[in-house]
Amino acid sequence: MQANTIDKNTVSSMQVLSFVLDGDWLGVEISGIQEVLEYRQVAKVPRTPDFMLGVINLRGKVIPVVDLRRHFQMKLAEPTVDSCIIIVHVEIDGEETPLGIMADRVQEVVEIAVEDINPPPRIGNRINGAFIYGMARHEEQFIILLRLSRVFSADELHKVLEQTVESPSAITAGLSQVALED
Question: Which SMART domains does UniProt cross-reference here (predicted)?
Answer without folding.
Answer: CheW (SM00260)
